[in-house]
Amino acid sequence: MKAQVRSQILARALIILTDLSPFGRERPPRQHILEGMKPASGAPRRHLPTSPFKPPPPAPPAKRFSVDDQVTHDRYGLGVVIGVEDEVAVLVDFGSRQERITTPFNKLYKL
């Protein structure tokens, strides 16, 4: 009886050491816990009506720029909008350089 148990233990140890399943196929590579997790989605969470917490404030409306608008930027200074890309980005001429500034336009202000 002891010999049979011992042979079973050795067989299992051999399987673990060779990293093969009992069916002869290789096991998938092991992953770290964080590598196997999916990243959180960028969608905002919905507010439940029964929640005791205040709902998040609504998002401010997106700034709209049009061609020939005079603008100022915290880093680049004064400029003129020379192109608009469907509320995704604006192309601004700051005199010494042209910059494509993407949404959100946190540092860009219309004059």
UniProtKB/TrEMBL annotation:
Segments of skewed composition (Basic and acidic residues): 24-35
Biased composition (Pro residues): 52-61
Region (Disordered) location: 22-65
Name by which UniProt lists this protein: Uncharacterized protein
Species of origin: Nonomuraea marmarensis
